[in-house]
Amino acid sequence: MDDVEQVERAMIAIRRRQTRRALGTDAAPTGQAFDVLDVIEASLEPTVSVVATALAVDQPRASKLVGAAVSSGLVRRVADQADGRRSVLMLTEQGEQMLAESHRRRRAAFDAAMGDWTARDRADFARLLTRFVDAMP
């Protein structure tokens, strides 16, 4: 098996585990509903359009996902100060707490998976994985 095939198999395994939300919490939303929170956290000016683009879904689907997050009390819409016709999405305190807990759980799982790695191996992996992700279209 060549290097590219090994990477493909590893990425498939990661995707399957993420699909099962092995690193999530039972109380948290799952799948794309949870991904909305990640997108909002990572965006400078998150809007429904930004969510749609980031999740590769159409505008109506993104609106439903955002609406569910708003209804759950995880996200709120705030009028854009520069353009009153547009709403910017913000995490509520509950949404921020849920993401913080998710980050804690994910990092603990990653730390456990790399528990017997040297500091050098961890640094190399972080550098190479970041480089790989940055190069993906």
CATH superfamily of the domain at 24-105: Winged helix-like DNA-binding domain superfamily/Winged helix DNA-binding domain
CATH topology of the domain at 24-105: Arc Repressor Mutant, subunit A
Quantity of strands, as a count: 2
CATH architecture annotation of the domain at 24-105: Orthogonal Bundle
The description of the largest β-sheet is: 2 strands, antiparallel
The parts where pLDDT drops under 50 for at least 5 residues are: none
N- and C-termini, Cα separation: 24 Å
Describe this entry's structure for a reader:
This protein is mainly alpha-helical and about 140 residues long. The chain has a domain at about 25-105: Winged helix-like DNA-binding domain superfamily/Winged helix DNA-binding domain (Arc Repressor Mutant, subunit A, Orthogonal Bundle), CATH 1.10.10.10. The chain contains six helices and two strands. A two-stranded antiparallel ribbon has the order 1-2. β1 (about 75-80) and β2 form a beta hairpin. α2 (about 30-40) crosses α3 and α3 (about 50-55) crosses α4 (about 60-70).
